[in-house]
Amino acid sequence: MNAPFEGIGASVRRKEDLRFISGRGNYTDDINRPHQTYMVIKRSDRPHAKIISIDTSVAMAAPGVVAIYTGDDFANIGGLPCGWQIHNKDGSPMAEPKHPVIAHGKVRHVGDPIAVVIAETKQQARNAAELLEINLEDLPGVATTTDALKPGATLIHDEAAGNVCYDWHLGDADAVAAAFKSAHKVVTLDLENNRLIPNAMEPRVALGDYDRHTGDYTLYTTSQNPHVIRLLMGAFVLGLPEHKLRVVAPDVGGGFGSKIYHYAEEAIVTWAAGKLGRPVKWTADRSESFMSDAHGRDHVSTAQMAVDASGKFLALKVHTVANMGAYLSTFAPAVPTYLYATLLAGTYTTPVIYVEVKAVFTNTVPVDAYRGAGRPEATFLIERLVDAVALDTGIDKIELRRKNFIPIDAFPYQTPVALQYDSGNYFATLDAAMKAADYNGFPARKAAAAAKGKLRGIGVSTYLEACGIAPSKVVGSLGARAGLYEVANIRVHPTGSVTVFTGTHSHGQGHETTMAQLVTDQLGVPFSQVDIVHGDTSKIPFGMGTYGSRSLAVGGSAMVKAMDKIIAKGKKIAAHLLEASPEDIEFKNGNFSVAGTDRSKSFGEIALTAYVPHNYPIETVEPGLDETAFYDPMNFTFPGGCHICEVEIDPETGVTSIINFNAVDDVGRVINPMIVEGQVQGGVAQGIGQALMENAAYDASGQLLSGSFMDYTMPRADDLVNITVGTENTMCTHNPLGSKGCGEVGAIGSPPAVINAICDALKIRHMNMPATAEKVWSIINGRSAG
Amino acid sequence: MYDFAYEKPASLADAVAALGHEDAKVIAGGMTLIPVLKQRLNKPSVVVDLSGLGMTGITVTDESVIIGAMTTHATVAASAAVKRAIPALATLAGLIGDKEVRHRGTIGGSLANNDPAADYPSAALALGATINTNTRSINADDYFQGMFTTALEAGEVITSVVFPIPAKAAYVKFKNPASRYAMVGVFVAKGPAGVRVTITGAGQNGVFRHIGFEHALAAKWSADSLTGVATSQDDLNSDIHASAEYRAHLCNVVAKRAVAAAG
Ligand SMILES: Cc1cc2nc3c(=O)[nH]c(=O)nc-3n(C[C@H](O)[C@H](O)[C@H](O)COP(=O)(O)OP(=O)(O)OC[C@H]3O[C@@H](n4cnc5c(N)ncnc54)[C@H](O)[C@@H]3O)c2cc1C
ipTM value of the model? Predict the structure, then answer.
């Protein structure tokens, strides 16, 4: 009987799922250390206030209390670092006020930590936290960028005049101005991208441990990138060298970006563990997650497209104000700039683009990258604007897109906003999605719905994104303070089984399966003989973690490079055993053979020989079969595709139902189609969530109104339909796998498809997200009344 | 949550005695009480668990459906007897929360709590139910006294609820998209208590009877009768999910749908 095919292209079941669905995962909160203490954080319930005094004496005397720390204890310790520096239009660096680990002098958002209580039990810590006597004096607060920019608005940081973090631009302002002057028409659209709260299923947890005999620190944390945390916290906050600091991120229950960043709690538990000589554990409760996990999106923009009489795009001008929240989270400044503005060409040949972005501080939770990060904001803007152009010019929205698509033979395609796309075929994904969605049958379905008193609409989004983050040299020149390569160590054991140590991190994506398939494919080792290890700085050589759909495109490529070294070495060993020259050895299906003969050695035999080198080319080849590769990508990867959404609206209530959702994406080479389908469906679910229901609501002063699942609307299964996923792939031309990445396409491509469908149904030009029932009802009502 | 003592009495008398402690609190399904305790919004001295008392089960007579206070929403939703006698009540129970909540939460707990967006209060008020306690029987008209407020005295335990069987009834719920409680839930009934229309989720003071709708339907039982009948926005909730204006509009739409469903 043939073994089942488990290599590239097989929908192998996810091997990690058995432990996840049977409750056997090993999450950070499952880890407990001897003599552990528990930390509870007293957080601000005010958006903006002066800290007049904190009296800890009563709380300190409460049963079980081990220590209480406030901002004073951290006053001489580094703030939480920002990993990306943006420069203003005039070349000066952005305002980068200190982000204290614990608030010092002032609190700047609801959720800002004021003090931590560490006690023998969590209950005792909670009890004592209630005894803290904290005297705050309220200052005026602002929640929106519009209010923060008003003259005389409350100043959040002394270092940021007018609450402006930076005022940045990209592109050719003069060329755009000239094109606007001679254009047939300029179409303008004002739009907002609503703020979201990530809500990973597993709340954040941090457990710090210190060994006074060795001086070693260990931080167990819910992170997407343990090495980055080690680097940021060790070097910038606590001054701990790498060899004395181990960061472990075990099973992590979802991140969506929110677990990339270095958070205060990680630094506090690590520092306190050293101070107290005892482990310190903090586990967020859900309410804390709402007010302390980095939020996402929150843009206000004006977009203008100049077109000629035939509908050809001539120039695009965009002005965006981005809300940073109260402090700069780790990658926040990069999101509305290099992950957003560089995407504004989309799938179109728009020859000149100019974009201005102003980033602004407000009294809200810091914002950072959230699934898609900048690219959903860019895609929403472009794909809404294209529909507005179609409406204003009377050109069919499909025809308009086709007319402006980058032609198939134009790749590599240099955009006017820095990026160079390596490959793509937007016509193919559009055609396939239209077919899957039975686009041509829509008028009949619309008429049938109208007969029942319902409004149907269909919306199209032909999007593109940049991921596979990122070429270090390029991002370095743009202000990144880190390299963005990836690392793989492939350890072949003496009997031929393989352990892969990857610098990427899986928090739901199924790396343990996909990456094992990659090894099976490349080395011919059975799938069951391959294990993937991630999430521990003491095991993995180095790594930048998982975000920006980079794990396969960058981390997988590092694996391929390391496996190439394994194969090259194996050939030398095989050549010795087979008495042939290494150049004559071929490696195929797990066998090293002499070309053109039936003489061969299996992969297992070569592995054993490498570790038992009795008959071995010892003069020229080292024993062992264990190789590491660092892979720095040549370019970003550019997945893209077409999402088509069909909605039906109940005009009496304004409720929108998704009737059909078809996604056809170009993600490059697919390793496991089932996992890709799941990634796209999950992303689309989040995109539909953003489009129809999710919204981080603040009152004008910065009080969080949607601080629980009673008020923050998460999409649920019954809000969705079966999301149909297809792929029409072109290969990435610059990485060895041809893979582009699939983690974010769903969340990037889908929101404008939904809103375009609603606008189509309502025959309106625009509406902002989320399209709640009341908003839709008001629009219908206003129209029927007017 | 704060520390508290826990008791699980075997008789109603023991339960009532245990509830004599200052700040004693009943726990039924715990679906409301436990989240409240976890947020430290309540600090009971002792929590008295009613699950050892029986008080479960459904009895149907010619005139009424009698439901034990500890009967779960899932039991009511699945009951063939309730579906025959008052199908609207089974429908309503099946619309509460999610499956897990329906298997823990009880009718007694729901009525004792009287959440302004809970479902059961609308049925109790529309059908003219009687709430039986360890000391007395309370008419629904006297029982609901504004949000989270009822006629129950401290230490009083609901034992069962009696719903008169109506000629027609239906419940339609427009869910709050986040919490899935009622944003506007309308129970319409034509029964021994006359024509009644009750609304939950919309009012600032909890469940209320919509007199305008009742008059219109008493004149003619038809969804069309409600066309143009206004709902005052004065006492309606306005929040991030829905303005008072929208809720007022929904009262009309949902009530019409309920009348249509009742037949
Ligand atoms: C996720 C979630 C979703 C929900 N969705 C809905 C919904 O859509 N619609 C809805 O109506 N409800 C909803 N609920 C509430 C649910 O119906 C609760 O079960 C109900 O409100 C309380 O019932 P319980 O048995 O759990 O009571 P408990 O939580 O045990 O008690 C609630 C209160 O009633 C008191 N109490 C309980 N039983 C008695 C008694 N016999 N006599 C006197 N006092 C008593 C308790 O002391 C307490 O104050 C939801 C709850 C959750 C957690």
Answer: 0.96
Integer CA distances (angstroms), A580 to A76, A454, A594, A687, in order? 66, 76, 7, 57
Residue A406 has pLDDT above 50, yes or no: yes
Nearest to A653 among B179, B241, B250 (CB): B250
Which position has the token pair 């980033």?
A: A359
B241 to chain A, any CB pair closer than 8 A? The answer is yes
Angle at B189 between CA B188 and CA B191, to 5 degrees: 170
Instruction: Find chain A residues with C-beta within 8 A of B242's C-beta.
Output: 774
> Domain coordinates of chain A in residue numbers?
17-22+485-631, 438-483+635-786
Euclidean distance between the first and final Cα of chain A, in Å? 73
Report the distance separating Cα A688 and Cα A714, nearest Å. 10
B238 vs A: CB within 8 A: no
Residue among B3, B39, B253 whose CB faces A653 most closely: B253
Residue with the smallest CA separation from ligand 1 atom 19 is: B105
CATH 3.30.465.10 fits B58-262, yes or no: yes
Give percent above pLDDT 90 in chain A.
97
Q: Which residue of B has its CA nearest to A128?
A: B2
The CATH number given to B5-49 is 3.30.43.10
**In which band, very low, low, confident or very high, does the pLDDT at A2 lie, cut at 50, 70 and 90?**
low
Q: Is the pLDDT of residue B111 over 70?
A: yes
How does pLDDT run across A205-227, given as a tens digit for each residue?
999 999 999 999 999 999 999 99
- A chain contacts of residue B249, beta-carbon cutoff 8 Å: 777
The CA B103 to ligand 1 mean position distance, Å, reads 11
Report CA-CA distances (Å) from A325 to A51, A277, A712, B229.
Answer: 19, 35, 18, 46
**What is the structure's pLDDT at A784?**
38
Q: Whole-structure pTM over 0.95, yes or no?
A: yes
> What CATH architecture applies to the domain A17-22+485-631?
2-Layer Sandwich (3.30)
Which among B16, B21, B27 is the best mutation to test ligand 1's pocket, defined by most ligand atoms within 8 Å of the CB?
Answer: B27
